[in-house]
Amino acid sequence: MQGVILKGIAGFYYVDVEGFGLYECKAKGIFRKHHQSPMVGDHVIIEEIDEAFQKGTIAKILERKNQLKRPVVANVDHALVIFAIKDPEPAFLLIDRFLIGMKENNVPCTICFNKKDLASDEEIKRLSEMYKNSGSDVLFTSSYTKEGIADLKEVIRNKTVCVAGPSGVGKSSLINELQMEVCMEVGDLSRKTSRGKHTTRHAQLIPIMEHSYIVDTPGFSSFEPDCSEAGNVQDYYDEFDEYRGLCRFNGCSHLHEPDCEVKKAVELGQISQVRYDNYCSIYKTIDSKRRY
Ligand code: GDP
Ligand code: ZN
Question: Do 281 and 260 reside in the same domain of the chain?
């Protein structure tokens, strides 16, 4: 049987097997010998040892498409960062940090701005302009009016999706909207894994729609770019691409160099000022960490 590891606690793995439900499994000893260990998100082959109690052993870990370090989870297909258009105002720097962290792992991102019902057309336009050339999609939703919910479902369909966002933006409300489609075994998961209540919270996958999972993580702050080189940060700003190599200096950081085409594009409004300011701020943060 093949399934997906939703959660791991104290040597037990909870594997969702389509059509059969949740299996409580231990990993075969062989993995330890090979310095391998199953992780949340892994696609695994299990051998059933007890049909009635749905217990099994993990016999094989299928090849991982990717592997995030924070949170520790494998095979993430997509990332969704949720903010409100207002109430509370979006923290643009956090959005960029999240986008960079995900791009480093080659995970495509969608930015979801919720509470569309509170926003004017100008505010919506400003936000879509800001991320127009960022390489990430932007979606506007309202869990009140249900606008954009169908689009959000399309983003999530058949995927394992990393969801992040500060509290108060409507994450729970949106997730409830998505969950209405198919009632999955969320209750089952918490019942079977209740022994984990008092242990440290690790990432887990929550079945949200058929063939879709969201990665439930301990906190938004766990998403940090890995970038050890400030000079690499610009690689994650797709809107700089068309100016690459055109600045006066090779290896221009686009911070204070003269004849910088990126800075010119910002002045002309071709690159968003907010995105550029965030770039500078992230660059400086990484640069100062390296030096001290
Ligand atoms: P979470 O903390 O991100 O999970 O956010 P919640 O789902 O708990 O929502 C936070 C607050 O925002 C609650 O008072 C919700 O009623 C409100 N809220 C959620 N979605 C919307 C929306 O689309 N529009 C408006 N105006 N309020 C919303
Ligand atoms: Zn430059």
Answer: yes
